[in-house]
Amino acid sequence: MKLGVNLRRIRKYKNYTLRQLGVRTGLDHSDISKIERGIRTDVTIQTVIKLAAALEVSLDDLVLKDLSQK
């Protein structure tokens, strides 16, 4: 799933810890970790929007682009 891979890559590129991103989004850091690892796949559009806004990226960048090789 591209979301988890992209989320981790963008978060690390922006130098956010899981906890920092959790504070920025209002999401629990353990849930963000589960999304990154592909354990949690029932992610709502509201959650994706919060993550994209907190990371200051488009929804396309977070969900659709293949960042796995970058």
Please provide a written account of the structure.
Helix 1 crosses helix 3 (29-36) and helix 2 packs across helix 3 (29-36). The protein has helices at residues 2-13, 18-25, 29-36, 45-55, 59-63. The chain contains five helices and no strands. It is 63% helix and 0% strand. It is mainly alpha-helical.
SS-based structural class?
Answer: mainly alpha
Classify the beta-strand content into a percent band: under 5%
Helix content: 55-70%
Estimate the mean pLDDT confidence.
Answer: 93
- Please give the number of β-strands: 0
**What are the segments in which pLDDT stays under 50 over at least 5 consecutive residues?**
none
SSE string: HHHHH
Principal-axis shape equals globular
Gap between N and C termini:
16 Å
Q: Quick one: biggest sheet?
A: none
Number of helices: 5
Question: What's the alpha carbon Rg, rounded to whole Å?
Answer: 11 Å
